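can u do me a favor
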């Protein structure tokens, strides 16, 4: 069992962690902030987002930060001035979005009930449907496979990625036996770490569903990401969860934390 350390406390609600440019970036839901946190726990506001929840982040191939403004159905990009401006309008294909991953070819996938593709030229199209509460996504290092956490279906689902970004060959990557996966990330041994709110833990599984490791965090675990100097630090975003009907109370309680533990294998793939 890896020792769990506390890096940050007092977040309203942390989501969408990404290791980027030597720091952990995350979305602080309810505060409309994108934060970057160093390994001493010092945080800096990197963007102010014109929405409440949900919103998530990644980077385009040229290093531009993009933000999913979930309720508004927009993908925003950050300009050199720091301002967020529209990059892609997703409302024509669905009305609400959640998570994003940008693969190694610059294709951005955005999900919730469907998966939308935004290609590097800004074109938008739907590439998958019937996603049961889409949460975290990850793309394998060879850009061949996209894995999505379907929280309400209690499974990780995989798609083959075509040369044009299309998704085919839908299949169950791992049946999670009733657990509800949230944010996910891949490691170099081909395993997936997924965060579990009801389980109050972070779980490492291999394809097929075998559980390799479980890290208890004592509160709802919403997302995870591998990073750090050697890419073997597992960052876990956790908060006390009171249920969807008490989301405001949960945000106001500021129980959000960033927790860390040493992982057996380093990060791989995207994000």
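np, heres the sequence
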């Amino acid at each position: 069992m890896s020792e769990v350390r506390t890096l940050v406390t007092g977040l309203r609600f942390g989501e969408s962690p990404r290791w980027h440019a030597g720091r952990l970036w995350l979305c602080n839901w309810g505060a409309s902030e994108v934060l970057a946190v160093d390994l001493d726990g010092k945080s800096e506001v990197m963007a102010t987002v014109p929405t409440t929840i949900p919103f998530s982040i990644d980077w385009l191939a040229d290093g531009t930060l993009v933000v999913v403004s979930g309720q508004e159905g927009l993908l925003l990009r950050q300009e050199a001035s720091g301002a967020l401006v529209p990059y892609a309008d997703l409302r024509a294909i669905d009305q609400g979005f959640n998570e994003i991953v940008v693969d190694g070819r610059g294709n951005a996938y955005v999900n919730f009930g469907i998966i939308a593709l935004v290609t590097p030229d800004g074109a938008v199209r739907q590439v998958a449907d019937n996603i049961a509460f889409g949460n975290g996504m990850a793309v394998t290092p060879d850009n061949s496979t996209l894995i999505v956490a379907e929280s309400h279906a209690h499974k990780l689902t995989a798609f083959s990625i075509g040369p044009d970004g299309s998704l085919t060959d839908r299949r169950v990557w791992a049946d999670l036996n009733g657990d509800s996966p949230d944010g996910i990330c891949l490691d170099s041994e081909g395993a997936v770490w997924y965060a579990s709110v009801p389980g109050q833990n972070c779980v490492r599984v291999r394809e097929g569903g075998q559980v390799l490791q479980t890290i208890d965090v004592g509160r709802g675990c919403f997302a995870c990401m591998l990073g750090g100097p050697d890419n073997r630090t597992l960052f876990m975003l956790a908060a006390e969860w009171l249920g969807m009907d008490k989301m405001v109370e949960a945000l106001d309680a500021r129980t959000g934390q960033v927790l860390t533990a040493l992982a057996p294998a380093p990060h791989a793939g995207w994000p």
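The domain at 5-268 is CATH 2.120.10.30 (Neuraminidase). hope that helps!!
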